[in-house]
Amino acid sequence: MESPILAAAAGAAAMLLLVVAVLAVTRRRRSRQDLEAMLAAAQRESDLLRGRLEELTARAMPRPADRPAAPARSVEEQADFVITHVGEPEPETAAPTRGIAVPDRLVLSATLGEPLVKVAALSHGVRRALSAESRNRIWFEMRREVRASRRRRRLLRKRLERDYRARVRASDDLALEDLR
Question: H-type helices in the chain, by residue range?
Answer without folding.
Answer: 2-60, 75-78, 104-129, 132-179
